[in-house]
Amino acid sequence: MAGRHNRGMNDLRKCALLVAYHGGAFCGFQRQPAVPTVQESLETAWKAVTSESVVMHGSGRTDSGVHAWGQVVHFSTDSKIPAEDMVSAFNAHLPEKAVVRAAADVPVDFHASSSSCGKRYFYRLALGATRPVLSSGLTAWDRTSHLDLLAMREAVTYLLGEHDFAAFAAAGRSTKTSVRCLRSLHIRPIRGGIGFFVEGSGFLYKMVRNLVGSLVEVGKGRRAPIWVETVLESRDRRRAGVTAAPEGLVLWRSLYSQDPFSTLL
Amino acid sequence: MAGRHNRGMNDLRKCALLVAYHGGAFCGFQRQPAVPTVQESLETAWKAVTSESVVMHGSGRTDSGVHAWGQVVHFSTDSKIPAEDMVSAFNAHLPEKAVVRAAADVPVDFHASSSSCGKRYFYRLALGATRPVLSSGLTAWDRTSHLDLLAMREAVTYLLGEHDFAAFAAAGRSTKTSVRCLRSLHIRPIRGGIGFFVEGSGFLYKMVRNLVGSLVEVGKGRRAPIWVETVLESRDRRRAGVTAAPEGLVLWRSLYSQDPFSTLL
Question: What ranges in chain B are assigned the alpha helix state H?
């Protein structure tokens, strides 16, 4: 096999995939017994193509119901299939609501999660008395017809930057630290409601949905903008607002200093 | 009952509804035996609220799979329920993928279909090798990554204005005349593909989807722009391109010189 490639110490090839999926069709990204997951769908598709068993590592574990437009996944393989042929090979074997948008060879030290220098999320919230029937499953919905965007934007100013976000993390996953840097959080009117455009160094379990839920409390006038600062400083997860519904959330892209898909994004 | 209202010759009250629905959940607007339709859902909901049997008349019959954002429906009723209370009354009894956005009292001579002076449709076509998983069910999809918009726009110039559109009508519904006025047809890039924004005095059965299907043939370079003129002049429905898929089509609004929902639209 010598001479086939020249990728460093480890004689294995590493590939990355750019993956989109509709969260409503999966019980989250991470493989679990007896339920459909994105990880298992990708591993099964690859096995159908190559007969090779691999482990797919995602840039982050989206929860059940959460969508992705730019999930990045890596895996190690002995296959010689050119990266440009992987897209159609995967898509021929993936379920209807998941798709590989692009594939690329990456350096062997690339890791979808630990190489990532940040993530962008989009959260869509439909507002008003009537159910959002055309975008159902792709948007959260609140019957409120109006949220105070100025108050919400003021609240955001207390959240931006590097903080211990423990108060906005749900229990259930251990990480070394709950300090993250929230780089930007823009709230803008979109058709039928509002959109939250969120970027940070990384996010704790359910952190985006807890931030959105808390900001909506402020937007409804139930809490003053400065309330989010007291929640943040408390580091107490019982203090934050309700977790916003998963169907509004999209993992928009995972960021890398050397992005395997830079030409696409 | 005299004195309760004063609406002209006929002592009946007439109301109009502005209705949105996801076409994937219904076998079209018009009532048919043993399958879910929008008309039947509205009639059933009204009966649940008032015990009154009414016939719901739509501004047009959307086909199975076609969506609506601004379908207008009228019905006659003896009910005294204020129009502003009808929205929540209907929505409490409609299936998940249909919603009444607004309700209004209208003059007794108002007719959702025959009073309409035009319609607007939107057609969404995703382009590219990968399935549109996030908008699946709400967009048509063509694997082509590129369509020649300039050629398509040139083809549109042959279609605009008043013509006999028989070549673009599917068989199956009789109308007095197949002459219609196509007032505008804009083709614009939208996220992930292109959108067709279409307005006309009215449309024949499957006419919008046949126009889109024929324009896509031109966009792919299979036909020259002037081909659509020869199709139009032939008045022969076997000449036009394939009928574009229903899931890309949305009845955006029905137009009225005196619009019952003018403040909303």
Answer: 38-50, 83-91, 149-159, 207-219, 227-234
Question: Tell me: the pLDDT tens digits for B229-246?
Answer: 999 999 988 888 889 999
Residues of B at the A interface, defined by Cβ within 8 angstroms: 20-22, 67, 69, 87-88, 91, 96-101, 129-131, 133-136, 138, 250
Output the DSSP codes for B214-226.
HHHHHHTTSS-TT
ipTM of the shown complex: 0.77
- Pair type for strands A57-58 and B140-142: unpaired
Instruction: Give tens-digit pLDDT for B129-183.
Output: 889 999 988 999 999 989 999 999 999 999 999 999 999 998 766 678 999 999 9
Residue from B112, B120, B257 nearest B183 by CA: B120
Nearest chain B Cα distance for residue A263, angstroms: 16
Domain boundaries, chain A: 13-114, 117-253
User: Is B13-114 in CATH node 3.60.90.10?
Assistant: no
| Active site (annotated) includes residue A63 | yes
Which of B22, B134, B250 minimises the CB distance to A20? B134
β-strand partners of B193: B126, B190
- Would the CB atoms of B88 and A21 count as touching at under 8 Å? no
Pick the CATH number of B117-253 from 2.60.40.10, 3.30.70.660, 3.40.50.720, 3.30.70.1050: 3.30.70.660
CB contact under 8 A, B133 and A97: yes
Check CB contact under 8 Å for A133 and B99. yes
